[in-house]
Design a protein that fits this description.
single chain, 16 helices
Amino acid sequence: MDFRRLWLADAVNQVGTRMTFLAAPLLAVLYLNASTFEVALVRTCETLGWLLFGLLAGAWVDRTRCRPVLVITDVGRAILMLTVPLAAVFGVLTLWQLYVVVFLVGVLTVFFDVAHQSYLPRLVPADQLVDANAKLAANASVAAVAGASTGGYLVQLLTAPFVFAFDALTFLWSALWVRAIRHREPPVAPAPDRHLGREITEGVRYVFRHPVLRSLTMSTATIVLGQAGGMGVSMVFLVRDIGLSAGVIGLLGTVGLLGALLASAVTRRLVARLGQARVLLWGVFLLGLAFLAQAFTTPGWGLVWWVASGFVSSFCIIATNVVMMTIRQTVCAPELLGRVNATMELTVWSVMSVGSLLGGVLGTWAGTRVTLLVSGAVSCLAVGWLLARRTEIVGAAR
């Protein structure tokens, strides 16, 4: 019952977040007339919080109960989101306000995500983690479909600023359901000589000295570096180079992201049949190829490249995320899980900030299509990190 409440909170939260993920760059492009670099900077602000506060969040979450952190950060994000439509109503919305809002929401999301990932092993038994992670991944895949289509249509119908109001409501929904969870975490006993700096250092060393966690971190970071570079220019590419409307972009996202829905339904069976290691290796390999395929998109029938890329990449993202998260939660010492989650996520999200910024620079200098091609090629290198530690990964995934 308590996991069901967490699942319900996550389900609607994910939809709203996906809608804003689409609406924020469209707001910059269509409402605020931002340049290619300025649009990419929106993505950078969304992820900058990990670079500044990621390690601190991990050490702090290991010292406290996770449930109150989830509730407080949900309410805070809802309040911040509501400032965007309010500013639009009074005609004072600016690009700088958008940067500030997405940055502060991103900071709260850092604490939310670390607490959420650390909370699940405290809420469900270890032998149910794969199933629980798969169900949460199903939320992400449904949200990817519903959020992309609904967000696109709402941007076209209501204009982008007012999509932020919907996301604020989803954060409040999440806070109410998390608060309804009856399970109470035991208090965390403080170490007599605890020191924040030493605790952060301990988490970082644990990740990068552990062969499996290190290879998972570096592989994911490589994928995200390429993905972020492409995403930094993707809206400009689709709107200005391909000539698509917000509604069509939302529809393309819906068709392509059906792969995520399929992955959430079959990942458990794939893992049972092939094993976690094979699902992970093949998923990362195909994911790089899918991102590379985006660069071949053209108007008309050439949109098939974008749709096929979205389908395959979404499938692989869900499948590999379920396996990676389960391996992480299984091999990590419980008292270090918050710091390990934060260290790994910090690496990934910091790379995302750099990738989106580099994507904007490269897009301005060489064009959006070249940027997508280079970004896809970078993502293809990610599987090399896993192949280098294949034996250890197979052992950890049993």
